[in-house]
Write a structure and sequence with these properties.
Alpha-Beta Plaits, binds iron/sulfur cluster, alpha+beta, globular, 20% helix, two-stranded antiparallel ribbon, four-stranded antiparallel sheet
């Protein structure tokens, strides 16, 4: 299982993750930050669990994030 963690409070709303992995990410119209779809807020971050098949695009999103707040791992 793929685990994605998003430290959302530090998001600068650049849209890169949405462009690279639109299946997991969208922009919030409320605050202009990205939202990890289906994630739950846990302490300081939002965490979501996904099929391994979306690893590549989300790794690319994590690498593209200019503030390095997307973490991708396997559980
Ligand atoms: S790439 Fe990073 S800074 Fe840009 S919208 Fe996504 S989480 Fe926010």
């Amino acid at each position: 299982m793929l685990v994605i963690t998003h430290y959302r409070n530090k998001c600068i709303g650049c849209n890169a993750c949405v462009e690279i992995a639109p299946g997991q990410w969208k922009m919030s119209r409320k605050d202009g930050k990205s939202v990890l779809l289906g994630a739950q807020k846990k302490k300081m971050a939002h965490t979501g669990y996904f099929d391994d098949s979306v690893f590549d695009e989300n790794l690319k999103a994590a690498e593209a994030c200019p503030v390095n707040i997307i973490k991708v791992s396997f559980k």
